[in-house]
Structure formats: structure tokens, C-alpha cells
């Protein structure tokens, strides 16, 4: 996914929290492959080394664990808000401080306006992520979320 990082950072510099201090944290197992991108005033980038996994599914499943670990070690003392964005996303328009609330998520565009019956929630009762068929009003995208640290 490092291949997406240059475009991600370039579009973030144009549209994400412009005029505000931003600290980009890049989680990767490919430190040498991180491209150099010129950042604006008050903006910085830190590359955080994480364990390599063979399957993208394993990376996805461990994401919250990695975020939590770095929260305790770094983020709590360095930032007020954490915005988690998948690196294969591209910013196309303004994203500003108006999104910064204690907890926020993004509605999944593929399910926007759909009924709850269409949502691909976990439906196995034995799962800790189980959501009954008569519950759940929204389906969120895992690629853009955050909140206060």
C-alpha cells in the first residue's frame, strides 16, 4: 500500500485541514519505500514501523490494536484528535476541523440510503460483533474515522 502514499499525501496537503497543524502518522512495514513529499508549514510526517503480515485481511483485523498501541505510546502526548484514513483514499475536496468531534465515522457510500436488511453486518449470534436483524441504522466505512485521543 506504500504505492498509494504519495498521492494520498499530495491530495491531503491540498484538501485536509488546510491552515491547521497536521501530524501524519504512516503505519508501514516498508520504511525505505515511503516517498518524500513536501509538506506545508505546521505539517509533519512520522513513519511508524509495524509488523509485516502476509495477508491484507490480517492487517485489517489488527488495525485497531496497532492504533491503540501507538495511542498509548505516542498519540496521547502528541495530538488532540486522531483521524484514521486508509492510504488508498484520495482527497478531492475540503475536509476541515468541522469533522473533529469526540467520535466520528463516515457512512459507507455503497450502502448510503439502503435499508438495514442490505447492510452486511455480522449476523452470527456467537460473534462479539453480532448485530440483530432488527438493529442498526447506518453502515459505516472503515476507511475514514476518528475522534479525540
From TrEMBL:
Amino acids binding UDP-N-acetyl-alpha-D-galactosamine: 86-88
Chief location bin: membrane
GO CC entries: membrane
Cofactor comment: Binds 1 Mn(2+) ion per subunit.
One Gene Ontology MF term: hexosyltransferase activity
Cofactor: Mn(2+)
Gene3D superfamilies noted in UniProt: Spore Coat Polysaccharide Biosynthesis Protein SpsA, Chain A (3.90.550.10)
Subcellular locations according to the entry: Membrane
SUPFAM superfamilies xref list: Nucleotide-diphospho-sugar transferases
Residues involved in Mn(2+) binding: 86, 88
Keyword Manganese on entry: yes
Annotated residues for binding of an alpha-L-fucosyl-(1->2)-beta-D-galactosyl derivative: 108, 120
InterPro entries with a match to the protein in the record: Glyco_trans_6 (IPR005076), Nucleotide-diphossugar_trans (IPR029044)
Any one GO BP annotation for this protein: carbohydrate metabolic process
Keywords in alphabetical order: Glycosyltransferase, Manganese, Metal-binding, Signal-anchor, Transferase, Transmembrane
Membrane topology listed for this record: Single-pass type II membrane protein
Pfam families according to UniProt: Glyco_transf_6 (PF03414)
Family named by the database record: Belongs to the glycosyltransferase 6 family.
Cross-referenced PANTHER family: GLYCOSYLTRANSFERASE-RELATED, HISTO-BLOOD GROUP ABO SYSTEM TRANSFERASE
Full protein name: ABO glycosyltransferase
Organism whose genome encodes this protein: Homo sapiens
Taxonomic classification: Eukaryota, Metazoa, Chordata, Craniata, Vertebrata
Amino acid at each position: 500500500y506504500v504505492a498509494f502514499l504519495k498521492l494520498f499525501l499530495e491530495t491531503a496537503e491540498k484538501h485536509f485541514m488546510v491552515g491547521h497543524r497536521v501530524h501524519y502518522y504512516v503505519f508501514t512495514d516498508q520504511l525505505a519505500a515511503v516517498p518524500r513529499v513536501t509538506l506545508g508549514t505546521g505539517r509533519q510526517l512520522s513513519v511508524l514501523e509495524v509488523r509485516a503480515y502476509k495477508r491484507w485481511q490480517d492487517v485489517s483485523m489488527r488495525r485497531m490494536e496497532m492504533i491503540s498501541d501507538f495511542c498509548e505510546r505516542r498519540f496521547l502526548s502528541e495530538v488532540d484528535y486522531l483521524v484514521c484514513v486508509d492510504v488508498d483514499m484520495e482527497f478531492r475536496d475540503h475536509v476541515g476541523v468541522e469533522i473533529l468531534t469526540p467520535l466520528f465515522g463516515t457512512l459507507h457510500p455503497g450502502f448510503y440510503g439502503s435499508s438495514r436488511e442490505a447492510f452486511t453486518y455480522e449476523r452470527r449470534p456467537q460473534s462479539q460483533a453480532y448485530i440483530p436483524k432488527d438493529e442498526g441504522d447506518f453502515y459505516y466505512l472503515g476507511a475514514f474515522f476518528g475522534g479525540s485521543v
